[in-house]
């Protein structure tokens, strides 16, 4: 059987550029008709690891963290909305939108990996947050999303009470940080070549074709 091109994606559930980056990668894979030649694995990165349980208003949070004015934020949000539309994804920014803690979402993404549902769960979580105004730190919402993607929600939720799955996510985060990943999304191809940021579709195509060509020449 032909070896698949491995793509590791380090990202956060509430990161708009991570969503845009993945949707552009997906577009590149579909246009090149090589979806079946690629295996994707998601890895945790928390933009806000110290975010309290109650979350924080997005506008306040961005002003505090990046120093962006409200006008700059509006401009940035509109840009996301426009890019999202081009890619078939809805960014619905609203006044009361909150930045939330995503640690438990990452624990569940690790669980989903064993069932081949990681990408499906990832996109369901990011859609819930950005398109459906849902709090992806709320366990009732998480349980609902797990069921929607066909996972055993009851079994998955037990992971949140266990030390081992929680430690695993923390170790994974440390591993990627120690490798120098400080911003997301970061895409790593065959554990060698890395791209950071939501690159244009053509950039993804170029990298994918080069790597597949190299792989075919070796075999």
What does it look like?
There is one protein chain. The chain has 219 residues and is an alpha+beta fold. It has a single domain (5-218), classed as Glutaredoxin (3-Layer(aba) Sandwich). Helix content is 53%, strand content 12%. It has nine helices and six strands; from the N terminus they run βαββααβαααααββα. It has helices at residues 16-32, 58-66, 70-86, 103-113, 118-130, 139-148, 153-158, 163-178, 201-218, and strands at 5-11, 38-44, 56-57, 98-99, 186-189, 193-196. It has a four-stranded mixed β-sheet, sandwiched between helices. Strand 1, helix 1 (16-32) and strand 2 (38-44) form a beta-alpha-beta unit. Helix 4 (103-113) packs antiparallel against helix 5 and helix 4 packs across helix 8 (163-178). It is globular. The mean pLDDT is 95.
Ordered list of secondary-structure elements with their pairings:
Elements: E1 5-11, H1 16-32, E2 38-44, E3 56-57, H2 58-66, H3 70-86, E4 98-99, H4 103-113, H5 118-130, H6 139-148, H7 153-158, H8 163-178, E5 186-189, E6 193-196, H9 201-218
Parallel strand pairs: 1-2
Antiparallel strand pairs: 1-5, 3-4, 5-6
Helix pairs in contact: 1-9, 4-5, 4-8, 5-6
């Amino acid at each position: 059987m032909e070896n698949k091109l491995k793509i590791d994606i380090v990202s956060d559930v509430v990161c708009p550029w991570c969503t845009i980056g993945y949707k552009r990668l997906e577009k590149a894979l579909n246009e090149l008709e090589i979806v079946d030649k690629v295996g994707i694995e998601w890895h945790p990165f928390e933009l806000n690891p110290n975010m309290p349980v109650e979350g924080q208003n997005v506008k306040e949070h961005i002003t505090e963290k990046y120093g962006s004015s409200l006008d700059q934020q509006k401009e940035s949000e509109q840009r996301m909305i426009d890019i999202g539309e081009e890619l078939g994804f809805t960014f619905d920014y609203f006044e009361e939108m909150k930045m939330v803690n995503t640690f438990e979402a990452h624990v569940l993404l690790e669980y989903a990996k064993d069932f081949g549902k990681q990408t499906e769960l990832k996109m369901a979580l990011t859609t819930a947050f950005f398109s459906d105004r849902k709090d992806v730190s709320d366990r009732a919402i998480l349980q609902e999303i797990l069921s929607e993607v066909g996972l055993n929600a009851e079994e998955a939720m037990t992971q949140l009470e266990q030390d081992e799955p929680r430690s695993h996510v923390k170790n994974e985060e440390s591993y990627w940080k120690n490798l120098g990943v400080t911003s997301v999304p970061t895409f790593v191809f065959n554990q060698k070549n890395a791209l950071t940021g939501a690159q244009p579709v053509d950039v993804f195509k170029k990298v994918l074709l080069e790597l597949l060509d190299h792989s075919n020449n070796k075999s």
